[in-house]
Design brief:
Helices cover 70% and strands 0% of the residues. The protein is elongated. The longest helix has 37 residues, at 176-212. The chain contains 14 helices and no strands. By secondary structure, the protein is mainly alpha-helical. The chain has helices at 6-23, 34-41, 74-98, 102-127, 130-135, 145-165, 176-212, 217-220, 226-245, 252-274, 281-284, 286-308, 313-343, 346-363. It starts with 5 loop residues before the first helix and ends in a 12-residue tail after the last helix. Residues 28-46 and 365-375 have low confidence and may be disordered. Helix 3 packs across helix 7 and helix 12 (286-308) packs antiparallel against helix 13 (313-343).
């Protein structure tokens, strides 16, 4: 049998030193304060340096992130906002249509068409080639938020476009073919507006499901809250359009949308900033934290102005601007918070270890940190 090498000698001496320290422990009947006992156990006999395992450092090979971070840029964050704005504007237009408020209906329909057009531009910019959007329509996969989002946009876009074009019926001549088109457009626009409004909730929330379906830690863990935040942000942005474009006498539905949207948005952002433990940090620190705090202040100010300045067109316009700005900041804050969590290894390693420990505790499995058996 070969003699033990230097490593074996050091390990044997380390075990002997631990055994010697254990012999210094007091008998069971001799009670000492817990601080004194722990101090005696953590020190060498006769004083000296404390025996500790060094603190773990969260690093990765070659200093690279553990996860491959999202390749999306600012245009996807802008796409999140314009999609929500289109959805909220269609709901605003439907409210104006059903309650006989033409200013709200007109503003909502025109804004919805402009916003969904901007969404298509941002999406194609990210995809690189327009044909890639077309290729995604070759299959419908219910388990893929991206596939479902493509079909939602395909159903929503034409309906929003027809509803907006119908607003031009008032400027067409009353006679001839154009007059016939002018008389046919309003009922067609009403039907298309209701179709767009029926698709709007899915358009407003599918992007939240899309982000939560990724492996990005702070997005994935916030899967219950992201659709709520995006729904509230969509309602608030649509309300902002109504407060900006409609006179105070017709802005009642917009004010109610502002209150509902702000409540959902503030509730959801509060949850992601407090419920996720360590994974809430990216939403509170750095640029995402500043964006979300500013969005919260603008949301509260916009709702307060909408409720208190009911008879003032200027206050209503300022409130609508604040709500639109808050929606932009919320989307960018959520986006950059997820990107930050993918770059730091802590947000991947620590939650994984906590989940493993929780499963081990629930199944009564031995811990990896248990002392090795004596030889």
């Amino acid at each position: 049998m070969t003699p033990p090498g230097p490593v074996g000698d050091r390990f044997r001496r380390f075990r002997e030193r631990l055994a010697a320290e254990g012999s210094d422990r007091p008998p069971v009947g001799d009670e000492r304060p817990s601080g004194e006992a722990s101090g005696r156990r953590g020190r060498r006999r006769g004083g000296g340096e404390e025996l500790r395992v060094p603190e773990a450092e969260f690093t990765s090979y070659y200093g690279r992130p553990i996860l491959k971070g999202p390749v999306w840029k600012w245009d996807i964050a802008a796409y999140l906002f314009t999609g929500g704005l289109a959805a909220g504007s269609s709901l605003l237009a439907a409210g104006g249509q059903l309650t006989g408020r033409p200013a709200l209906r007109r503003a909502g329909r025109v804004t919805a068409l402009a916003a969904v057009s901007a969404s298509a531009v941002f999406l194609v910019r990210d995809l690189g080639r327009p044909a890639r959007f077309h290729h995604m329509l070759r299959v419908a996969k219910p388990t893929s938020p991206m596939s479902m989002g493509t079909w939602i946009l395909t159903a929503y876009g034409p309906a929003a476009g027809v509803a907006a074009i119908a607003e031009a019926a008032g400027v067409l001549p009353r006679h001839g073919l154009l007059g016939l088109a002018g008389r046919a457009l309003p009922p067609i626009g009403h039907a298309a507006g209701l179709i767009a409004a029926g698709t709007a909730p899915a358009l407003a929330t599918y992007t939240g499901v899309l982000l939560a379906d990724t492996a990005v830690p702070s997005w994935h863990e916030a899967y219950p809250e992201l659709p709520v935040i995006f729904a509230g942000s969509a309602l608030a942005s649509g309300a902002g359009v109504g407060l900006l474009a409609a006179p105070p006498a017709q802005a009642g539905p917009a004010r109610r949308m502002a209150v509902a949207g702000a409540a959902l948005e503030l509730y959801g952002t509060h949850r992601v900033e407090t419920r996720l433990g360590l994974l809430s940090e990216p939403y509170r620190l750095g640029r995402p934290g500043r964006l979300l705090r500013a969005a919260r202040l603008l949301t509260v100010g916009g709702v307060a102005g909408a409720l208190l300045g009911r008879r003032s067109r200027v206050v209503g316009a300022l409130s609508g601007t604040a709500l639109l700005a808050a929606s932009v900041l919320t989307r960018f804050g959520i986006f950059y918070g997820g990107v930050a969590s993918a770059r730091d290894p802590r947000y991947t390693v620590v939650p994984q270890r906590e989940r493993v420990e929780a499963r081990r505790s629930g199944m009564d499995l031995p811990s990896d940190r248990a002392a090795p058996p004596s030889v």
